[in-house]
Structures are given as C-alpha cells and as structure tokens.
Amino acid sequence: MITRRQSILVLPSFALAGCLATADNSGLIRAASTASKALSLTDDEVRGYAAQMAKKMDAEAKIAPVNNKYAQRLTALTSGLQEDKGLRLNYKVYLTPEVNAFAMADGTIRFYSGLMDMMTDDEIRYVLGHEIGHVHSGHTKKRMQTALSASAIQTAAASSGNAQVATLANSELGDLIVKVVKAQHSQSNENEADDYAMEFLSRRNFQRKAAVTALEKLDKLSGGRESNWLSTHPAPKERAARMSSKLV
Ligand SMILES: [Zn+2]
Fold it and tell me: Is residue 8 part of a domain?
C-alpha cells in the first residue's frame, strides 16, 4: 500500500532525477539512459555507496554527542555488538522525535531518539537485529542495484569499463537515500528481516519476546504519533502475531 507520506518522499527524487542532466558536479556522463539492464554490484561497491549515503545523512542530522544520555544508553546496550556475521557496526543516535532506525550495508546503524524513548533495551536490540537482517538478506543490495540501474550512473560505469565506486553527487545521493533507505519494504522482506532478528536475539542471549512487544508498540503508534519506521516497515500487528507464534 502506498501511503501519502511515501508519495511525498518519493516525488522529490523524480524531481531531482530530472535535474541531473544540467546539474552535474560528479564528472559522470549524463546520457538520458532509460536502460533497464540490471546493474550488478559487488559487495565492496555496495558498501562504498552506503558509506557515501551515511555521510550525507549524518551531515544533515543532529547527532547525539558521546556524553549525551541517548548516546551513552546506545553504547551500553550495544556492548559486545561491534560486529554481526562479519559486518562491522558503527552506531550513532539522531536527536529527533521521529520514530525511526536504519542500517546500511557498510555497517552504519542509526537510531532516532524518538524510537529509543518508547523502547526497552531489548526492544531496541530487536530493531537492530531486524535492520541488520535487511542488510544480510541482500535487500539493501538489491534496492541499490535497482536504483542505480535506473540512473545515469550505470551509463558512466559501463562506459568507463571499470567497476570502481563512483563518487556520487549530492543530488544523486539524495535520490539513492530515498530509494534505498526510505522506500517501503515488501512484506516478505519484512518477514525475512524479522526472522533474522529472532535468530540474532537468540544467538546473543537476548529476549526474543522483545520482538513481539516492540512490534505491538509500533502497532499502537500507527493510529497516533507519526513513525517513519512504520512507513518503511509495514504491518506491525501481523508481524507481532507471527513473532509471538515462534516463541512457543
Ligand atoms: Zn524492515
């Protein structure tokens, strides 16, 4: 289901894409390519583009300093969680009442203080496991490949004959963020990430029930306070029931 909020998020990306032909500061060729051939990215390339997106999002966010209570809480609750199945993790808190969190393919993990306000430590760890699940299940990579395939970057990569990570212009990164970080996941991707989260909590000896209570809290929110996490991670009620069935 497309929400009104999503259409607001998506529209500017089309506007930006339309501007690329004249606003080029990355040195890439701007052929108005509509090629639909899927671009195949290596994991290193995916990490390289993710790192560029993370840098832009950090630059535009209000980041909790290390002595801030949110940063201290996140540091404490992620103690021993510096990597997960080979992915090195780096954490920051964005100070904003928005209820949101995301992971990037380079191990960037960002929690919004609005989400931390409403969740216990174990519930935050469930969200962490879920977001890492999207990375480890290849959802992030697939989105990035789709987004870059539809852009002029593919033309540049093909014409240069090498597969190095291009330095993306600011507008291109904005476009990529909308399509990779802010777009809604499918229900099957959600279930896969939830399953990863349950395995993550179990493997780390954290409370798996936290998956259920976190989703129930998010479901309550859906009728009230605005949540960006809900716009990208749909149907918390059904997911809570599904996770609950796995506890027995
Ligand atoms: Zn999700």
Answer: no
Query: What is the average per-residue pLDDT within 230-239?
Result: 78
Q: What is the Å distance from ligand 1's center to 30 Cα?
A: 33
Dist. CA 35 → ligand 1 center (Å): 29
* Residue found by looking up tokens 């990597």 in the block: 83
The answer to whether residue 3 sits within a structural domain is no
Catalytic residue among 131, 190, 192, 216: 131
Question: In sequence order, which ranges of the chain are alpha helices (DSSP H)?
Answer: 4-19, 43-60, 69-77, 113-118, 121-136, 139-149, 153-160, 170-180, 187-203, 209-221, 228-232, 236-245
Ligand 1 centroid distance, CA of 44 (Å): 23
Structural domain including 117 reads: 39-245
pLDDT tens digits, 20-68: 223 333 434 333 344 445 678 889 989 999 999 999 999 999 999 999 9
Q: Is 216 a catalytic residue?
A: no
pTM: 0.79
| pLDDT score of 161 | 52
If you measure from the C-alpha of residue 232 to the centroid of ligand 1, how many angstroms do you get, rounded to a whole number?
7
